[in-house]
Amino acid sequence: MAITEHPDSATEVDPASTKVAEAVARARAAFASGRTRPVEWRVEQLDGLVRMLDEQSARFEEALAADLGKPPIEGFAADIGSTASEIREIRKHTPKWAKRRKVSLPLTSRPGKGYIVPEPLGVALVIAPWNYPVQLLLNPVAAALAAGNAVVAKPSELAPATSALLAELIGRYCDSDAITVVEGAVDVSTALLEQRFDHIFFTGSTDVGRIVYEAAAKHLTPVTLELGGKSPVLVDDSANIDVAARRLAWGKWLNAGQTCVAPDYVLVTEAHRDALVDAMEKSFEQFAGGSGTRHNDDFASIVSERHAGRLAGLLADHGGTVAFGGECEPHERHVAPTVVVDPDLDSPLMSEEIFGPILPVITIESMAEAVEFVNAREKPLALYVFADDDDAAERLIDQTTAGGSCINHVVQHLLPPELPFGGVGASGTGRYHGRSGFDTFSNLRSVLEKGSKPDPKLLYPPYSKLKERLIRRFI
User: Fold this and answer.
1) Catalytic residue numbers?
2) Residue ranges in 174-290 assigned as alpha helix (H)
């Protein structure tokens, strides 16, 4: 079963089955030895990951710049520093999360004790994408380690400098048998999916998520799928247009729009459409310092020439009006921030996840129409509402669904560790961040403990009329 990265794939790589089998066997042996279970070991590994990110931050910034043209501060804030903060939070709470969790018992189960034992699943596979190659590999890896698992980690070959650095460093800072990094392209991913794991965590496109799900089903392996899709923005008439425009522009500027929860299209009434578009254009100009984005050190590159060409294709056939931007230089891996007003709703621009700095703006007559538009499509990974009217914002949240949402901002709901992150429907299944990540990689084992005495005969046959009356009354 072949797996491809979104949106590109490498074509020729040496066979990897042996390498993969050895890595999985090493992780399996480490888990079977029992050494991943003690909380002290888990904390040690998390400390190692944090130390790696702190001590090697400059090298990671260089790798991210080489792979994605990320400005150093963006690489640090969105990939390195934020990941270290998340892992610190996980490390802080791991001893508590790993403890038994007492539950109260109904009268029918007393006397006795009830508790939940969080126990590790075994060996987890984490397959990461290229757009945030540090964060989207290490955050789930950290959750799996906190839960006491061994991990096989597969970075994306489309971020080769970062992948190589992770492979080099993780074994130096952590248990190199229990946390194994396997590099490679499609053949490696395919070989990994042929192995049996105790959990698979995949971040990437919906199409590839289906392949992962199908492969996992052969072994009845539980999966977490963090996918993508088209994340809508609903701009209510009560919204602060200048603030909404600036924050939308930032969401498309960040990593050149190559973010799974980037705003994908905007729904706004005609009364505010032109003002919103004009304000976004001004915001992009301010971000670029008046010099454009083509050779701007603060604007990331498109990951590959092929992906830039795909974005150019979306702009060549949309049936709408380019309000600003539109410049594409695929050979330079550059696409300028672009707003397209009222594209054809059947065009690829409105049917595919954009994953680039292009933002369609669609005119609607009312927020009721906007809700109907969103609900007629696949459930998104993120949905954004801009409204200064609290009642209007609450109605729009209540009348729609999404993996996660922000009111009056974009992307920011990923940051708080206590907010579980994940999709719904076609945008994914499962949650992580904070305790939800720990629980994702745990078997929450239910235990009821009873003493030998007393041993009432009420539930044992034969069933007398008295027993029947008592059972019907108390159960």
Assistant:
1) 226, 260
2) 186-194, 206-217, 241-253, 270-287
